[in-house]
Amino acid sequence: MRVAVQSESFDIGAETARFAAGRTDMGAAVTFTGIVRDPDGRLDRMEIEHYPGMTERAITTIAGEAQARWSLGDVLVIHRFGEMRPGEAIMMIATCAPHRGDAFAAAEFLMDYLKSRAPFWKKEYTRDGAAWVAAKDADEDALSRWEG
């Protein structure tokens, strides 16, 4: 398992290749990359804050839970903080498993957790000013399917 919380950008292709390299024991590798979106063309940048140490521990804990729930060979979570522009990668999740079902389910579980529970705070800067990004009910609803 690897969890990285970093300000630097990352190469999605290189991370994917490194994650899957030599995994002849696994039949599936699933990756997801979150990108800063700007659907209406107004976003100048996004800034993400976190508490160093606490954030890594929280993500490591949930990645460990994913490994306990599904038959996984490995987990990778990369999440950036600091300033990012539209089109830049914010985060990446990769899971590998003997079969695709576990790899997909674990990746979705991790994404739902990161969207609603990971200790990150996002602020968007537009030409009209700045505002903190509020939690969305849909993200909470998505996470609820994993409870119980």
For the largest beta-sheet, the strand count, sense and barrel status come to: 4 strands, mixed
Low-confidence parts:
none
Rg? 16 Å
Spatial arrangement of strands, main beta sheet: 1-4-6-2
Task: Indicate the mean pLDDT.
Answer: 93
- Give the total of beta strands: 8
Helix content: 25-40%
Order of helices and strands: EHEEHEEEHEEH
Structural class: alpha+beta
- CATH level-4 homologous superfamily: Molybdopterin biosynthesis MoaE subunit
Q: Strand share of the residues?
A: 25-35%
Q: Any idea of the CATH topology?
A: Aldehyde Oxidoreductase, domain 3
CATH hierarchy class name: Alpha Beta
Helix count equals 4
Shape: globular
Structure write-up:
By secondary structure, the chain is of the alpha+beta class. It has one domain (about 1-145): Aldehyde Oxidoreductase, domain 3, CATH 3.90.1170. Helices cover about 35% and strands about 35% of the residues. The protein is built from 4 helices and 8 strands. The protein has helices at about 10-20, 55-70, 100-115, 135-145; strands spanning about 1-5, 30-35, 45-50, 75-80, 80-85, 90-95, 120-125, 130. The strands form 2 sheets. The chain has a 4-stranded mixed beta sheet, with helices on both faces. It has a 4-stranded antiparallel beta sheet with strand order 5-3-7-8, with no helix packed on it. Strand 7 and strand 8 form a beta hairpin. The radius of gyration is 16 Å and the shape is globular. It starts with a strand and ends with a helix. The model has no long low-confidence stretch (mean pLDDT about 95).
